[in-house]
Amino acid sequence: VQLVDRMVHHRLVAGNRVELLRNGDEAFPSMLAAIESAQRSITLATYIFDNDRAGTRFCAALKRARERGVEVRVLIDDFGHLYSWPPITRELERARIPVARFLPTLVPWRMQYMNLRNHRKLMVVDGCVGFTGGMNVREGNLLALDPKHPLRDVHARVEGPVVAHIQQAFTEDWHFTTGQQLTGDRYFPELAPAGAVTARGLPDGPDEDFEVLRMAIIGALTVAVERVQIVTPYFVPDGSLITALNVAAMRGVAVDIVLPEQGNLALVQWACMGTVGQVLESGCRVWLSPPPFDHGKLMIVDGLWSLLGSANWDMRTLRLNFEFNLELY
Fold this sequence. Notes:
The protein is α/β, with parallel strands linked by helices. Helices cover 32% and strands 27% of the residues. Helix 3 (53-67) links the parallel strand 2 (41-46) and strand 3 (71-77). The longest helix has 16 residues, at 163-178.
């Protein structure tokens, strides 16, 4: 607690309810139901928002919300919005939904900030119900549809005071991208306790929040007593994280790391397998999950503390991308 207190402006807040949602089959219906019930505001930020069977459902629901008088704001990373063609931004603009692209450029290969991508996944409805985790808006998450490229993932539905931390991350990104401030009760209402989880939001990025997540992870490994459990799709940590994992294992902490058996990026999979040997030698255990590709990002320490959000265990995530995780007690 003291370590993270020194790094972030958010303080731990009690009284939160966190519901884990597996895959788009659980997450997307919950998110769409929240959109349909919105009365005042919807803020949505994502890295990828595909123009497919999932994306069009979200677009239609957001359009209906706007037509009811709900203030809707959608922020998509400029690289991420090109994962499908034509991009969903065209449909959102036709629906007159305010949409912005994070760090846009017409010539990305010449862009000096091409690596500084907004990898966050955030949605807040009426300022009081939040969603965050590792899930993009794409049909690969809907396993019931038998998609061509299926993905397993985990997201969280959140209620309670920590929702304001999720909303603040969105409003800061929106202001940076558009210059527009989102303030007032429409976006930041009073939030009553809703559950028994103590939590805070951990924004991370190549700005004043630089390396917040890396330091939090190292701190958690340092104080672990019995067990550390890690799930990540990409495992290419730097030397300091490898050392922290190895020291924990050598102290007698059971360290279990779950990685996809089959990666979706050949070069990253090659680098990941090259890293695995460096933690196996000191007693960490590495498990390979069978297909479909597991895109989830989760860390649990001693069954008491967890980290859930958009961040992978690689240096692009922990040094270059803008990320958002929840720290949960």
